[in-house]
């Protein structure tokens, strides 16, 4: 019987009161490796109470001391780097190389948070009127909540928790029920780094646990990352309940190629964008738009690369280019998308459905897949597939390609491949997306920049990471002072 994972409440690893669990798989071979308790209100209340109780002391801990814990966390994560990457690969299925990238990006947010004493500084101005000074300070809000998706089990929790904690908030994390193990390891390392009990807590589960968190009066901020329908629901519910919310949703990212783009680097970048993390990435390029006849130059080598992609078990074979998707249910959903594309008349030029992985036949595999002649109204271009499926369209020119991209309704990332500075400048100006790549397949910003989806890819105002993260996890207090000191008259 696989072990049911524990909650972290007030520094202790405790059992849930839940009777139901969700399975956690090793997607490479399809075996169940753990069970996630589907926590309800009483578990959530225990965790939020622990975070509430820990808040006053943690908020009063000097920023430099809070930052020292982050420095220790970074050192511990660096020391366990390979182990963390292997854990991500085991529960998510992505290649070790992708998992290493994920760990690196997560640690970078903790490194950013190490700068807390400088990042938290306020402003001041002497003599806003004669003898009167004005200053601002930043203070934490209280209990912060993180609700995270399956596709980055380590990095997405790390997008917000180091910043929330270093700003003086306490935290309750609700990781994806499909991948709870990396989050648990983060909790263990935070404890080892010296974080006081109750400052960071973990509850598990799905909808019920989330709803209990959104309704809890002690929760001040909610950071959500997941699919668009849930992101919208979280934003609407949590703001209605008076919380500050940043809610990142799904994506449909366009990769536009002009005929003057460099052939080899563009093919590599498109392959990495579409099939890295088996396409289970909110920054994945899922629509390829060949403008001005670029398809003639690029489509054949892309097809050849996709056919040559080695698919297999990422937990035991370092030679594979792409691993499985996260669950059998998700695999079936992707198959249904492919079926819909065929029925709508798209041309399946590379079919990944017949991939055979003899080593581990029960894993959740799909090979790299490419559709051509996709039309804007087709479901495969309107809906997020979140798997290794690339849909190709052709447009007369760049204007038409940008218009297609801007009509998508999402707005996470958009990418242009070209050697023309003018085309690149026009694209950056006109494209309706928060993260833009010019000859970069996955334009994911580093920790000191905001991760900024637009439209249906983000609900809220302040994005995750960087200075916007500091603003999200603090509130400003403005003090105006005048001293009536008879012995030392001032002006
Ligand atoms: P998901 O929306 O199914 O789940 C995300 C979280 O919400 C999980 O913790 C889950 O337990 C919870 N949840 C699920 N259904 C819920 C409901 N009805 N009510 C309340 N809570 C619920 O997403 P996923 O499948 O885990 O992750 C993939 C999605 O995340 C994709 O759409 C992807 O684009 C998106 N994503 C977005 C970003 C970004 O930065 N915009 C980053 C990573 C992933």
Kindly state the mean pLDDT as a whole number? 97
Question: What is the overall silhouette?
Answer: globular
CATH fold name of the largest domain: Aldehyde Dehydrogenase, Chain A, domain 1
CA gyration radius, whole angstroms: 24 Å
Task: Provide an overview of this structure.
The protein is α/β, with parallel strands linked by helices. The protein folds into 2 domains: 7-249 and 461-478, Aldehyde Dehydrogenase, Chain A, domain 1, CATH 3.40.605.10; 253-438, Aldehyde Dehydrogenase, Chain A, domain 2 (3-Layer(aba) Sandwich), CATH 3.40.309. Helices cover 39% and strands 22% of the residues. The protein has 16 helices and 20 strands. The protein has helices spanning 41-60, 63-79, 81-92, 96-113, 116-119, 155-166, 181-192, 207-215, 228-240, 263-275, 295-308, 328-343, 379-382, 398-406, 421-430, 466-472; strands spanning 7-9, 12-14, 21-26, 31-37, 124-129, 132-140, 143-147, 170-174, 200-202, 219-225, 244-248, 253-257, 285-291, 347-350, 369-372, 389-395, 413-417, 435-438, 458-460, 474-482. The strands form 5 sheets. Strands 14-15-16-13-12-17-18 form a 7-stranded mixed sheet, with helices on both faces. Strands 9-8-7-10-11-19 form a 6-stranded mixed sheet, with helices on both faces. The relative contact order is 0.14. The model has no long low-confidence stretch (mean pLDDT 97). The chain binds nicotinamide-adenine-dinucleotide (NAD). Nicotinamide-adenine-dinucleotide binds next to helix 8. Nicotinamide-adenine-dinucleotide (NAD) is lined by residues 147-152, 156, 174, 176-177, 206-207, 210, 225-227, 230, 248-251, 282, 384, 386, 412, 451, 453, 457.
């Amino acid at each position: 019987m696989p072990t049911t994972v524990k909650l972290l409440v007030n520094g202790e690893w405790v059992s849930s009161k839940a009777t139901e669990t969700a399975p956690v798989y090793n997607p490479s071979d399809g075996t169940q490796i753990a069970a996630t308790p589907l926590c309800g209100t009483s578990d959530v209340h225990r965790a939020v109470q622990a975070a509430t109780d820990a808040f006053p002391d943690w908020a009063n801990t000097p920023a430099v001391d809070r930052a020292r814990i982050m420095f220790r966390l970074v050192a511990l994560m660096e020391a366990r780097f390979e182990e963390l990457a292997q854990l991500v690969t085991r529960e998510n299925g992505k290649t070790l190389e992708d998992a290493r990238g994920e760990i690196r990006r997560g640690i970078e947010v903790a490194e950013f948070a190490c700068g807390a004493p400088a990042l938290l500084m306020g402003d001041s101005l002497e003599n806003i009127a004669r003898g009167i000074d004005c200053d601002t300070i930043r203070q934490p809000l209280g209990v912060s909540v993180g609700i995270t998706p399956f596709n980055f089990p380590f990095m997405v929790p790390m997008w917000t928790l180091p910043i929330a904690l270093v700003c003086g908030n306490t935290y309750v994390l609700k990781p994806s029920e499909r991948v709870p193990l990396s989050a648990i390891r983060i909790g263990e390392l935070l404890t080892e780094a010296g974080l006081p009990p109750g400052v960071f807590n973990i509850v598990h589960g799905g909808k019920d646990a989330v709803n209990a968190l959104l309704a809890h009066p002690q929760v001040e901020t909610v950071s959500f990352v997941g699919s668009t329908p849930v992101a919208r629901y979280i934003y609407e519910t949590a703001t209605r309940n008076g919380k500050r919310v940043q809610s990142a949703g799904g994506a449909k990212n366009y990769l536009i190629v002009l005929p003057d783009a460099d052939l080899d680097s563009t093919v590599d970048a498109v392959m990495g964008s579409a099939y890295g993390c088996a396409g289970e990435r909110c920054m994945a390029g899922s629509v390829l738009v060949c403008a001005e006849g670029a398809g003639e130059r690029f489509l054949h080598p892309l097809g050849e690369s996709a056919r040559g992609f080695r698919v297999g078990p990422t937990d035991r074979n370092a030679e594979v280019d792409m691993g499985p998707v996260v669950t059998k249910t998700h695999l079936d959903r992707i198959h249904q998308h492919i079926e819909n594309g065929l029925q709508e008349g798209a041309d399946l030029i590379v079919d990944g459905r017949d991939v055979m992985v003899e080593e581990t036949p029960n894993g959740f595999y799909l090979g790299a897949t490419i559709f051509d002649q996709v039309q804007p109204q087709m479901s495969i271009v309107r809906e997020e597939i979140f798997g290794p499926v690339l849909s190709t369209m052709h447009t007369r020119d760049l204007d038409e390609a940008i218009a297609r991209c801007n009509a998508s309704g999402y707005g996470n990332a958009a990418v242009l491949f070209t050697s023309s500075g003018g085309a690149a400048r026009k694209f950056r100006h006109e494209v309706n997306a928060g993260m833009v790549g010019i000859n970069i397949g996955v334009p994911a910003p580093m920790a000191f920049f905001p991760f900024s989806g637009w439209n249906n890819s983000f609900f809220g105002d302040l994005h995750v990471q960087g200075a916007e993260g500091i603003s999200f996890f603090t509130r400003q207090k403005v003090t105006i002072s005048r001293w009536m000191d008879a012995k030392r008259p001032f002006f």
